[in-house]
Amino acid sequence: MTMTGADLVLYGGNVLTLDARSSTATAVAVAGDRVLAVGDDAAMRALAGPAARTVDLGGRTVLPGINDAHLHLAMFGLAGPPFSADLNGVTSLAALRAALAGAPPGPGGGDWLVGEGWREANIPEFDTGPAGPHSTLIDAATGGRPAILHHASRHSVLVNTAALRLAGITRDTPDPVGGVIVRDAAGEPTGHLLEAAKGLVTRHVPAHTERERLDAIVTAMRTLNSLGFTSVTDPIVWPELLRDYITLHREGRMTVRVNTLLHWDWPSPTSTSEGLATALRYAGLSTGLGDDWLRIGGCKLFADGVPTQCTAWLHDPYPEGGTGHLVTRGDDEDARYEELMRMIELVHRHRLQAQVHVTGDRAADAAVDGLARALEADPWPDARHALIHGTLLTEESYARLAEHGIGVITSSLMKSHSGASMTRAIGAGRWARAFPAGALLAAGVRVADSSDAPVTFPDWRRGVATFVGAAPGPFADVPPDLRLTREQALRLWTSDPAHFEHAERRKGSVAPGLLADLVVLEEDPMKVPDDELQDLTPVLTIAGGRVVHDVDG
Hints:
This protein is α/β, with parallel strands linked by helices. Among the domains are: 6-68 and 514-550, Urease, subunit C, domain 1 (Roll); 84-202, Diaminopimelate Epimerase, Chain A, domain 1 (Roll), CATH 3.10.310. The chain contains 19 helices and 24 strands. The strands form four sheets. The protein has an eight-stranded parallel β-sheet with strand order 8-15-16-17-18-19-20-21. The longest helix is centred in the middle third of the chain and has 18 residues, at 210-227. The chain is globular and about 80 Å long. The relative contact order is 0.13.
């Protein structure tokens, strides 16, 4: 690196480098978009160039920029006003109806009413009838506007009667492959559509304008910057969204680095091996294409759904019966299993990292089968394939994951956001041991953590608190044998996501030559009491040597 001096020097602080040696320092010097040096105050200030900015940290703590390993950036930007009704805090039918009555115009200013974030366990009235969530419960509040309300998990929607009519969904409409039209005792559709069945309605919802989409992404990036984020992996990137990211990159509007996982079939989770083969043949892409701001990370596949909708594939039945199933194409379990094997092999053969959505333990075992089979038949030592969520895992799977270098992207924030729904769906015992990060790390499995925003708000601080055993909420407790140290938990949001991006030589720690992605916290996350971890205060965020958030302006 040829530099005449540092452009920026942070000194008088506590620099937690999170490098391989867990070293600490008091100052860091930045030149251009890279860290020039890390060390003591005098040495770093001596590196300052004539026009350098120097910042006295006053004892504050510096961490590598926060990196969310699984965050739907565009969806997060479009979730809530001014683009949709925010239903995350709704706890009654009356509150739901009030939120819908005040809903903003639909995409592009159209008639459709869009809501985001409802949870069945939060709305008692959804449990009083035999059919659960039902279109008739929201018809009065939505009037003649067709309405689509996205579940917090994004694995189901509730639509009103006007939307059912517009989509032509009747008692005679068959369930699509990989989806379920929930029906009442008389066989009539209730308006609750699971998994691929969502597409029967979403295809009729107008698209947001390009300007709406781009501005929403930029706004989401600024929100993330204020929390200390400098990188994310967006795990569902379809062609139009990839073009949007390219546009923002070209216009110089990106303040968060985006690692993309490609997916061609959203909003349906169901892909086919034939469709995937065609997409990969013409895409001509592989893991690593791009630059430090926007790159192709791999491909997202879905194995199953989610426990709250009873669409996760389990070994042991749900309390009310049934075990769910794979969402891949096929008339029976064997056919769906083999289809998943084919899709994993296709992605692997095209040298795209495969990240597979699994929430049920049986689905996870199937995905490991496919990934292990692909790696053994066609070795790719640096593939870094991963399971997404890994909500429920058999203990026997830990050794297999470690043996084949398959990682897990956990979702700690769901412990406090989804506990009420999850305990009802799978029981308190199984939920208590969900996302077993501590056991995975002990077994030698690579792990990174994530928010899955907008499924949860991307508060990494709550994620750290959760895995060290200090999370709020009655359903968020992590058993002692699954807990992490604070350093382990911090690494799950910094250096470990960089590993899954094949980017540990570019970011994820504070070291000379690495990208100058930094967050300054008011407090020391290694020393504050447990109950203050979720209240850490980001005061300065730097991405590539550029200040993207500063509480002092």
